[in-house]
Amino acid sequence: MVGQPKHLSDLARIEADVRITCRECGFEEDWQRDAFARHLFALGASQVWSEITRALRCRRFGCGSTNLRAAAVPFARRAANMPRRVGRLDAHLLDTAMKVLEQAVHTSRGRAVATLELRLALLVVYRYSHDRDGVRHFWQRASAADRTVDDGLVEPLRSIRHRLVQAGWLAPAILVDVPRTWPWNSPPPSGWLVAEEDG
Ligand SMILES: [Zn+2]
Fold this sequence. Notes:
Layout: H1 11-14, E1 16-22, E2 28-31, H2 33-43, E3 68-74, H3 88-106, H4 116-129, H5 132-143, H6 154-166, E4 180-182, E5 192-194
Helix pairs in contact: 3-4, 4-5, 5-6
The structure holds zinc ion.
Zinc ion is lined by residues 22, 24-25, 27, 58, 60, 63, 65.
């Protein structure tokens, strides 16, 4: 089938389940088509595909978002909420792109770091995260030389990483290394953060 289904019943022909994904927290839930049809019927909700998530809420405890996405998933694909199997090339590309971003963050204090290299890294990130705002936010800040400490790149980088982790492209940091801060005026060795001064 090309494109999106028009109606829930279209899924009978392609033998697919429905996966509801929360855009807020990333929680996924798989429904068999029949069970999902009964659920929608009980709610009095439409089975037209473009309206299919309207009556639903994220069922993860404490979330309840109504910002959901429905997708048809062929049988026997990866189970809901299982980490995506990331190919070696994808992992390598993203890893390198994230290193470029981290380097930019380290060297960005008080100057613009909007290099071609950074642009390429952000395009790679966008390829996987589809997070237009996050990528644009990082680029805009990287382009501004007169940033204050509060407008730094640390927070945009954190949000980009969060999106990639949520989407299953990056492994979540279970054991987070606390970055070491270089206390002297000399250039820090790699892996060390420059000490932030006030003002
Ligand atoms: Zn949610």
